[in-house]
Amino acid sequence: MIEIKDLRYHYQGGPEILKSISFRLEEGRFLAILGNNGAGKSTMLKCFNKIIFPDSGSVVMDGEEILNLSAKEVAKRIAFVAQTVPNNQITVHDMVMLGRRPYMRWGFTQEDHKIVHEVMESLHLLHMRGRFLNELSGGERQKVMLARALAQQPKILLLDEPTSSLDLKNQYQVLQAVKDICGNGQITAMVVIHDLNLALRFCDRFLLLQNGEVCRYGKQEVLDRKAIWEVYGVHGEVLDIQGRKIVMVD
Ligand SMILES: Nc1ncnc2c1ncn2[C@@H]1O[C@H](COP(=O)(O)OP(=O)(O)OP(=O)(O)O)[C@@H](O)[C@H]1O
């Protein structure tokens, strides 16, 4: 269980971006964080794992205050896949190995190599393990960064628009992989995502952020016509087609 309480944040010299964010998420859930551009979604994710330090509030996971932990200890518990993916001259294998760094003592162990192999296999990356990151497509790099995050074996996985460069098949493959590990109860995931239909297809909790405030939070019922209008300013109908919810914009 992760509990966020009264989180506030402003960038230096700017207005308050996050205004008293509070919610709790049980283990194994897959949360979609939705909202218009500039609502504060990325800023909020970055506060959860101390990439930026909130002005006030707390992030408590299993009774432990995350904001009091060192970066290394945070990395053992929370992994983050950023919106922009790096483009370095490093092999896919070595990039995914970096996910094991928080656990490293004198070097990588057999166990580290085994974990990295399994993660790459699950994301269908083994065939490109020797290729350099800067020679891959944006979508391929996005998958590598997800693999690195999973290699961290975090309890919480934070994903900032992880499917933005992926083709249809890879969008489904990546979100299904995250859903599966959440379903096994191994991980709790939060994804910032703009595609409401992908969110409805894969996520089981929904948080709508507006102007730095939580305006809806809960199961898929919170994503209704009124909420879509309030948050995005468009008329959208939520249809039930063969038991599956689909958003159609008028
Ligand atoms: N480093 C920064 N310095 C100052 N202001 C920033 C910085 N990063 C973001 N902001 C501002 O904070 C606000 C929230 O930005 P944030 O990136 O969190 O929004 P978002 O909801 O993730 O948007 P998007 O959907 O476009 O990615 C925006 O007004 C943005 O201009």
Automatic annotation (TrEMBL):
It holds the Pfam family ABC_tran. Residues 2-236 form the ABC transporter domain. Transmembrane segments: none annotated. The keyword Amino-acid biosynthesis does not apply. PROSITE patterns: ABC_TRANSPORTER_1, ABC_TRANSPORTER_2. Keywords: ATP-binding, Nucleotide-binding, Translocase, Transport. InterPro entries: AAA+_ATPase (IPR003593), ABC_transporter-like_ATP-bd (IPR003439), ABC_transporter-like_CS (IPR017871), P-loop_NTPase (IPR027417). One of its GO terms (molecular function) is ATP binding. SUPFAM superfamilies: P-loop containing nucleoside triphosphate hydrolases (SSF52540). It comes from the Bacteria. This is ABC transporter ATP-binding protein. It comes from Blautia celeris. The lineage of its organism: Bacteria, Bacillati, Bacillota, Clostridia, Lachnospirales.
